[in-house]
Design goal:
The chain is of the alpha/beta class. The protein is built from 15 helices and 17 strands.
Length: 460
């Protein structure tokens, strides 16, 4: 697959990756195969068997027509015809590669992919707008959704769990646009995040203790910063026997647990009826005896219900929010609580936030594409009208290396968290010097003159 993709990612010469002859042969084979298929009979044949039979038929057609093709061209053409019939056309090659995380289609002739954190332009193309629209409508049909000029936007999920957003004319001025966000078939765990230098062992140890002791956690970051991946990785530390209810707009979470109840919102039908929102699901989940509630991402009025659940016995709950800093995350929560329709004074909202959420984990996609945990912040209550935030760990950027990747150091900020008391009450004791101020350079630790700071106030 790497060799195939390297060829696909070569600079575009303006002719795409197929000659006119190959395109004509492929279209001819595609049409012949469709003519040969009995759709009523095909519905009763297992997909794997149907795929094999069609492959044999295409191979037979290739031999019968004696097309002037080399062995590699013949095999590639066979695969592309099958992709057109059974899959999503030209982008199937990317859907087969587990290292491709995003597929961005800007009209039929411009496809970008993100692989290993880097964005590349592909020389793969659709034939024209009609070809791309056919694939978009196939995606919609597979999930029972319609997309046309009257409903020109589509949110859907592919069979492998990938999330798809499509927008077409008249809203998209330059032709149909598609964004595919992919999620690995094997969830990334903390061990892998440590290998990727997303965080360091001391941070992982602290997060493990907090998850096991039912700390309420908010994961904040921009688009593509790795919030969902990090939330998935934290789930492996939820103790066995706890019932977890997840709520999402589009199912992305792959929690590493057995006892998980997954709920997903439903958009309105063509008549505008039947919509089920995240807020509806949060309220319903409270009747399902959850030990923890995990919301994939808070975006609106459900934020108030989530905070109330955290404050009324559903400890250990987690969610994510789009924000560029922990302080910005606080402002976003305030704004979204206001969207609930309940008229709370701003101080009352801040008090509810500060009592419900214990930790904020801030992620960032750095220069060069790598993801980092840049802050782990404790919420310690209120001072006047301000929510108090204290850094426990942070990442300090120092520049860019010769490969174009951001460089810097993780450091312990020298503040003993108030959460320590909560952990001790639940039988978890961390090393006394874990929060001593120092720089964490991989396995090498550089101590500073100051040790840690104890705060006199207490929060349980």
């Amino acid at each position: 697959m790497d060799e195939e993709l390297e060829q696909i990612l070569e600079p575009d010469n303006g002719e795409g990756n197929e000659s006119a002859v190959l395109q004509k042969i492929k279209a001819d084979l595609h049409n012949q195969l469709l003519d040969m298929l009995d759709y009523d009979e095909a519905r009763n044949i297992p997909l794997a068997k149907l795929h094999k039979e069609c492959a044999e038929r295409v191979d037979t057609l290739l031999r019968a027509r004696q097309y002037p093709l080399s062995g590699p061209d013949r095999q590639r053409l066979l695969q592309e015809v099958l992709d057109e019939v059974f899959g999503f056309g030209p982008i199937e090659v990317f859907l087969r590669d587990p290292e491709v995380s995003d597929i961005l289609i800007n009209g039929p002739y411009q496809i970008y992919i993100e692989k290993r954190g880097q964005l590349h332009r592909s020389n793969i193309k659709f034939l024209d707008d009609n070809h791309l629209m056919r694939i978009i409508k196939r995606i919609g049909t597979n999930v029972g959704r319609r997309i046309d000029e009257s409903i020109p936007m589509l949110d859907a999920r592919l069979p492998d769990g990938s999330r798809v957003n499509a927008i077409i004319p008249p809203l998209a001025l330059d032709g149909p646009m598609v964004s595919v966000r992919r999620f690995g078939t094997i969830p990334i765990d903390i061990k892998r995040l440590l290998e990727l230098d997303t965080l360091v062992q001391e941070m992982a140890d602290f997060m493990q203790a907090c998850v096991q002791c039912k700390t309420n956690i908010l994961i904040s970051g921009g688009t593509g910063s790795g919030k969902t991946t990090f939330l998935n990785s934290l789930s492996r530390w939820i103790p066995e026997g706890e019932r977890v209810v997840t709520i999402e707009d589009a199912a992305e979470l792959q929690l590493q647990r057995d006892h998980v109840v997954r709920l997903e919102t439903r958009p309105p039908n063509i008549e505008g009826e039947g919509c089920i929102t995240q807020r509806d699901l949060v309220r319903n989940s409270l009747r399902m005896r959850p030990d923890r509630i995990i919301i994939g991402e808070v975006r609106g009025g459900e934020t108030l219900d989530m905070l109330q659940a955290m404050n009324t016995g559903h400890e250990g709950s987690m969610t994510t929010v789009h924000a560029n800093s922990p302080r910005d995350a606080m402002r976003r929560l305030e704004s979204m609580v206001s969207m609930s329709g309940v008229n709370h004074p701003i101080r009352a909202i801040r008090e509810q936030v500060s009592s419900a959420i214990h930790l904020i984990v801030q992620l960032e996609r750095m220069t060069g594409g790598k993801r980092k945990v840049i802050n782990i912040v404790e919420i310690t209550g209120m001072e006047g009208d301000t929510v108090c935030l204290h850094d426990i760990f942070r990442f300090n950027k120092t520049g860019v290396d010769e490969s174009g990747n951001a460089k810097g150091n993780f450091e312990v900020c020298g503040v003993r968290p108030l959460l320590i008391n909560r952990l001790l009450e639940r039988g978890v004791e961390l090393a006394h010097d874990m929060f001593q101020r120092r720089v964490l350079a991989g396995t090498r630790q550089v101590l500073t003159n100051d040790r840690f700071t104890d705060r006199p106030n207490d929060r349980k």
